[in-house]
Design brief:
The protein has about 475 residues and is an alpha+beta fold. It is built from twelve helices and 23 strands. It folds into three domains: about 180 residues, no CATH class; about 90 residues, Immunoglobulin-like (Sandwich), CATH 2.60.40.10; about 150 residues, Restriction Endonuclease, CATH 3.40.91. Helix content is about 25%, strand content about 30%.
Amino acid sequence: MPIASHATKAVQDFLAAIRPLRPAYSDPTFSYLAVRTVQGWLLLKGQLSLNLAPSKVPFNHFTSENVRAGHCHLSDIAGSPEEFLQIIEGGKIRVGTEDLLFPPGQNGTHGAYFQPLHPAGLQNQNRLNVLGIVGSENAEVNRTLHLDWEVRAAATPYDGLQDLASEFQVGIVRTDAISIEVAAYNVAAFDLTSAISGTKAKVGLRLAKGAKFDDASLGYRVLSQGKVTARGLIPGKDFKWSESADHRQGWAQIEVPPAAVVHGIANYAGVAQHQGWAIDPDAVQNPLRAVYETFDKALRFLQEVLNRETKSGNSRDLEAVLGWLLWMLGFGVANLGGTAKTQDAPDLLCTTPSGNLLIVEVTTGLLRADNKLTNLHDRTQAIRRSLDASGNSQTRILPLLVTSKTQREIEPELEQAERWGIKVVTKDDFDATLVRTLVLSKPDQLFEELEKSVRDARAKFEQLSGGAVSLSG
């Protein structure tokens, strides 16, 4: 019987979400990281990727005495994602000549969670549907240090298990439990080369090769002088389409007022997949950004600091630049980290018009460098106590850790941040944040987006609070 007919709600919701997108997914692949135990090869982390084009991750395998990792076609394991989920339920996956064990939790069942807007996708303003399957406790976590040194001595050396996980795009390895994630990527995107010249906006839509023109559309909002002056939807049939090696490209044109900004939303089968902005490079609508650009034309210094290589970066420069960036986004900003007298305070405190508070720490290194992660957690708790004691318990607070490292570089540390409810912003987020300064922002709305992202990230660790559920209902 197909697993979709008797799956957990999480599995059912995931399969329902990707059903209209299925024709666009070509050649799904499976990546894995496993370690040897007395029972056999135990799968620590696996990822089934529903790809839109041929995968660029090498199809090969790594093996040392106690560690295996690799990347293969789903067709080598199962005929469909549904069949793959059925195989998981059996507790082992045959890859090549070896079985990878994926035992259930203590109560004999696997857990499941569904994130329709995964934080990794939101970094790039797109929809990333992720189904997570959680198995037994990760009892091998205490062996990590020894296994790291083992793979460093391999014929093809890697800097530990997480380096292997990154190479084969397995994702973050949880410390509490073994897991498999199924990732379904967005099939449509707003073309970020879209631009405005005078009163004409050329807007683009990208589609996966297997996606249908008639199921695609582009929603748009035109902003002028801080107000939305037009909203509309351009159906896929009204675009001029062309084909490239790995995607379909469509272009359309709309009339806009002078110095306008266009917010574009790429849709497929009636579901928003990705968003972006088209601007006139010679016009700025946000008065706060216009004021700032009086002294830093085209944000040249600001962007230079944000794009610096970590080793040559200066944390004080980054701290200052982030304060300016948050100010352009409409936050009230207090820089406490810039003086010796307030070194024990967070680097930045940022308020919204309704009184919500961002507590910001800035680093050019890893999250645990100089105890940044722990300090932010402790300072957030101290601020919460102070607010409660002063009769301001209604104030919502959110800790934010900003690093000039990429997400891939800090992946091993993300789990602790997510468990503590700390939002992590990496170098990968900087460009999207800069785009938001083009128009006058609503800080409270941005705060709520960050808050939701934190809740969603924590959900995967809390989904077993009511007890694990079986994939077969």
